[in-house]
Amino acid sequence: MANGNFKLRVAVDQDVCVGAGLCVLSTAEVFDQRDEDGVVKLLTSEPDETQYEKVLGAARKCPAKAIKVEKIMDDAPAQESGSEHA
């Protein structure tokens, strides 16, 4: 899902996580689990664009709904083409 108009911001709620590990199985680059209890650890809150589909899938599959994904609109100004100002 290549899209330059937005980015994803991910957050996890460790208080509600049940340690199922589905997030880690789908996107180990973004999610991990604590060794002592299996609760989710977030490795990055702004995943790479190539991981968007997997991150969204992990959020949908989470049995505790402990993963929240927010779509942040890219506020970078549009580049004008064809004219340069001296």
Task: Name its key features.
disordered C terminus; elongated; alpha+beta; Alpha-Beta Plaits; 86 residues; single chain; two-stranded antiparallel sheet; two-stranded antiparallel ribbon
Task: Provide an overview of this structure.
A two-stranded antiparallel sheet has the order 1-4. The chain has a two-stranded antiparallel ribbon with strand order 2-3. The longest helix is centred in the middle third of the chain and has 10 residues, at 52-61. The model is unreliable at 78-86 (pLDDT under 50). The radius of gyration is 17 Å and the shape is elongated. The chain has one domain (6-73): 2-Layer Sandwich (Alpha-Beta Plaits). It is built from two helices and four strands; from the N terminus they run βαββαβ. The protein has helices at 22-26, 52-61, and strands spanning 6-12, 31-33, 40-42, 67-73. The protein has 86 residues and is an alpha+beta fold.
Estimate the global geometry from the Cα principal axes.
Answer: elongated
The helix content is 10-25%
CATH fold-level topology:
Alpha-Beta Plaits
Q: Which residues sit in consecutive blocks of at least 5 with pLDDT less than 50?
A: 78-86
Total number of β-strand segments? Answer: 4
What is the makeup of the main sheet?
2 strands, antiparallel
| Top-tier CATH class | Alpha Beta
The computed structural class is alpha+beta
- Strand line-up across the major sheet: 1-4
What is the typical, i.e. mean, pLDDT? Answer: 88
Which architecture does the CATH hierarchy give at level 2?
A: 2-Layer Sandwich
Order of helices and strands: EHEEHE
Estimated radius of gyration: 17 Å
Strand content: 15-25%
End-to-end distance: 38 Å
**Structure annotation, total helices:** 2
For the record, the count of structural domains works out to 1
